[in-house]
Amino acid sequence: MKYQVLLFYKYITIHDPKAEMLRQKKLCQKHNLKCRIIVAKEGINGTLEGLTGNTQAYIDEMSADERFTDIHWKKSVGTGNAFPRINVKVRPEIVTLGLGKEDIDPNATSGKYITAEELHELYESGKEFYVIDMRNDYEQAIGHFEDAILMPVSNFREIPDKLNEIEHLKDKLVVTTCTGGIRCEKASGFLKEHGFTNVYQLHGGMQTYIEKYPNKHFKGKLYVFDGRTVWGINTESPEHEVIGRCRDCNKKCDNYVDCSYIHCRNPKRHFILCKECIGENGKAYCSEECKQSK
Ligand SMILES: [Zn+2]
Ligand SMILES: [Zn+2]
Asked: What is the dihedral of CA 175, 179, 180, 186, to 10 degrees?
């Protein structure tokens, strides 16, 4: 039994998000897929898992719809447990920068695409350029592009407040990067609207780069938002570097845990902890406060 995980998005005006949501539910039922899909007026964003024949059937059906013919599908090996159920929701946006009505419309403004191959060549060329990592800090902790500027945010919505961190790069060649590309469509548009003159976004995101160049200029592993949490290719190879560090003993490690206090609301409740540092009772706490309130 071979499972496959699909990751995709498409910024395109969806006139009736609710109807699309219902259609997506039916599609997933029909092909026996489990998923998390968000539909909004600005587009669709999804990740789903099923047997390989079924994920392909889903791609074929989506591709027959003219709105979705040019979706860039990211495929990876699944476990069969990536998602608990079919989960399709209508939201105001598929990804939000939190700018309210002024939020960036990627259908109108975004950076130019740079392919994984072109980015690879840039690295090899020695030219001056800056890779900006638009993901959350806990994602960056286990892997990121070489020499990347890691935006210090625990949520994408904080990006506008951290613009000062990269203000000095306004006239430089910058490449925005994220897992599959969806956040960069907005982030690159946001940079352009704030006077950045030479903005590129990595087409297909980090996952596409890693598929083509495992263990090259992307160091460590990729954080993914499904039951696998951590993903990589050829991670057993001696070329592979472990970037993550255990919070408590600082040993190299990419094992994520969640704070064991069930009411924990700390944005840092998801962190890296090695098996030895997890208490004998299997519990892990983000803070002394949570430990006391268990
Ligand atoms: Zn440890
Ligand atoms: Zn906690």
From this structure: -60
Whole-angstrom distance, CA of residue 273 vs CA of residue 288: 15
Residues with CB under 5 Å of ion ligand 2 are 259, 261, 264, 266, 269, 286, 290
Regarding whether 155 and 272 lie in a shared domain, the answer is no
Q: What is the pTM of this model?
A: 0.92
Cα 283 versus chain centre, distance: 27
Q: Among 90, 114, 131, which residue terminates a domain?
A: 90
Statement: residue 102 has pLDDT above 70: no
In a 10 Å sphere around its CB, with 0-12 CB exposed, 13-18 middle and 19+ buried, how is residue 99 labelled?
A: middle
Question: Ligand 1 centroid vs 105 CA: distance in angstroms?
Answer: 43
Give the domain extent around 280: 256-293
The DSSP element (H or E) to which 291 belongs, if any, is: helix 288-293
What integer is the mean pLDDT of 237-245? 96
Which pLDDT tens digit goes with each residue over 72-88?
999 999 999 999 999 99
Separation of CA 162 and ligand 2 centre (Å): 25
What is the tens place of the pLDDT at every residue in 34-55?
A: 999 999 999 999 999 999 999 9
Same domain, 57 and 108: no
